[in-house]
Amino acid sequence: DPRTRDWFMLASPWPNVYLTVLYCLMVWLGPKVMRNRQAFSLRTVMILYNIFITALSLWMFKEILLSALNMGYNWTCALKRPEDPEDIRMANVLWWYYFSKAIEFLDTLFFILRKNNHQITFLHVYHHVSMFNIWWVVLNWGATGQAFFGPLANSFVHVIMYTYYCLSAIPALRPYLWWKRYITKLQLLQFFIVIFHTYRAIYYKCGYILWLQYFLGFYMLSLVALFSNFYMQSYVKKRS
Predict the structure, then answer these.
(1) Which of 103, 125, 130, 223 lies 20 to 30 Å from 19 when distance is taken between CA atoms?
(2) CB-based contacts of 133: which residues, under 8 Å, 6+ apart?
């Protein structure tokens, strides 16, 4: 996309590659470094971080929704409108969505520093690495149009999810946080809705980039499989 080609971190794939490699090194080396060290509490840091991500997600949800409404996006088939200033507004917020995936690498760092290594699962690492890199691709080839829907849904889910994380960092509130399992259900619902939205556009021969639609659709299916397995292992099998 010529409009976004020279934006920060988009002109070359190397910043993404470097950050991804550093993240993977952190995942591998971090627990080893912390093995014989005392875990950090980070309670205040966690509360502030989760408030920030919640606020950022809420802002992104609002910006994406308003841009889509202002452009009169067809919710079945939304196409890029390079001549419309609102399209640049949409591209801008989707860049922030992409960049937020780099910020969210801190989730893993906090797990490591708090020695919650059991939370650094394949699903966790796969999700963080893939989202960051996939959105580099999306912003370079199809920054607006159909690309708006997944971030809209995901930003909404993240408002709820990071609100939960923020509240769970306060020990006095933990007994009242009974709704954790429903966040996973909401994530799965999000994936199914995005898959439906994606393949519906393919079926109706929407003019958005076809290979990108198939790619994102298959990626969503991989998340359904992984999150379903997580839900089964965490809630269904434990209960039985």
Answers:
(1) 223
(2) 16, 20
* Cα separation, 111 vs 104, whole angstroms: 12
**Region at 127 (left for phi over 0; alpha for psi -120 to 50; beta for the rest):** alpha
Asked if residue 238 has pLDDT above 90, the reply is no
Whether 45 shows a pLDDT value over 90: the answer reads yes
- Cα 146 from Cα 62, distance rounded (Å): 17
Predicted local confidence at residue 240, as pLDDT: 58
What is the secondary structure of 89-100 as a DSSP string? Answer: HHHHHHHHHHHH
Please tell me the distance from the alpha carbon of residue 154 to that of residue 97, in angstroms, as a whole number. 10
Phi, psi of 69 (to 5 degrees): -70, -40
Q: How many residues comprise the chain?
A: 240
Euclidean distance between CA atoms 47 and 40, whole angstroms: 14
Strand intervals (E) in 136-196 = none
Q: Residue 74: helix, strand or coil by DSSP?
A: coil
Each residue of 149-175: pLDDT tens digit? Answer: 999 999 999 999 999 999 999 999 999
| Residues acting as catalytic residues | 127
Spatial distance between the Cα atoms of 77 and 67, rounded to a whole number of angstroms: 15
